[in-house]
Design goal:
It is a single chain. It is built from 1 helix and 4 strands. A 4-stranded antiparallel sheet has the order 1-2-3-4, covered by helices on one side. It comes from Sporosarcina jeotgali. This is YheE family protein. Pfam families: DUF5342.
Length: 67
């Protein structure tokens, strides 16, 4: 489960190219960039269960950005 999920536009005014996000999973903190095409670029370490974490991030981004 992802905790303390935060998202913000990469640039002021919310203009594309994407958003930065961060979250806590267990004792680890992860950060990354979410691109408009749904690509995730991790800016620190990559989670061990990357595919399942990507699905959770996509769901949260849909809720936070596109709603």
């Amino acid at each position: 489960m992802l905790q303390h999920f935060r998202v913000q536009p990469m640039f002021e005014g919310g203009q594309l190219p994407g958003w930065t996000f961060s979250f806590q999973q267990g004792a680890e903190r992860y950060t990354g960039d979410y691109m408009p095409d749904g690509t995730i670029k991790w800016t620190n370490s990559v989670p061990n269960d990357e595919e399942s974490v990507k699905k959770m991030v996509h769901e949260l981004m849909t809720f936070h950005v596109y709603e």
